[in-house]
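Posting this for the archive.
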Amino acid sequence: MTATVQIPTQRRALVNTPMKRTLASLGLLAVLLLAWQFVPGWTNTPEYVVPPLSDVLAALFDPAALPRYLENAASTMSIVLLGLVIGVVAGLVLAILLAQSPTAYAVVFPYIVAIESIPKVAVAPLFIIWFGFGMPSKVVVVVLLAFFPMLVNALHGFRGVDRDQLDLFRVNGAKPLQIQTRLMLPAALPQIFSGLELAVANSMIGAIVAEFVGAQKGLGVLILQAQGRMETAAVFALLIILSVLGILLNLAVRVLRKIVIRWEITAR
């Protein structure tokens, strides 16, 4: 009788754990939002420093400003997505090539480390000079910020493949393409997706920084304009938009990870 009662209780506890965590997270969010609304007034904080939440929401859903937000968000996201795709593909391809040749890895990797150590924000003005204030200069910044996380993480994943399994594939006459697609790529998937998550975060940062340095439109431009007019509520509203876009991109990567890993397991 005791065992029969304990098993359903344990199951209920396991089922309720995710729900409890979700409720705790939503409760914390509610507390933070309430504090944002009322604490600035209680502490007599000037609105140009920290506006109450109601002012930020009013700025966010302002009918006059909303079309401008959407237009500039589309401009920023086009830069992010284009630069992200180019940087991720280039980093993955170079990682595959370097993983196949220890000599090339030994020669090239020190230069990769040296270039990666240079703050990309510092070279953004150079790209503005070389490529102008249009879209290409912003895309180049995003490409660099997406390229290195993917390259380094994917390279570590490829080079971390079990040598015994690699020798086994070669002994059985596997071709290089078969080794890449059936052994190295599946084994490196966790590191590849970790690099992709970092690349997504860096791409958002790169696009905004590039727009700060010089641009004609984009969310970064709107933030600078609102800052110049001391419209702090609008700045917070734009930051909320950026946060939502970043969360959606990160969520897309997580969904893609589950789909790819499930497909890879099924294919085996």
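The radius of gyration is 24 Å. Residues 1-7 have pLDDT under 50 and may be disordered.
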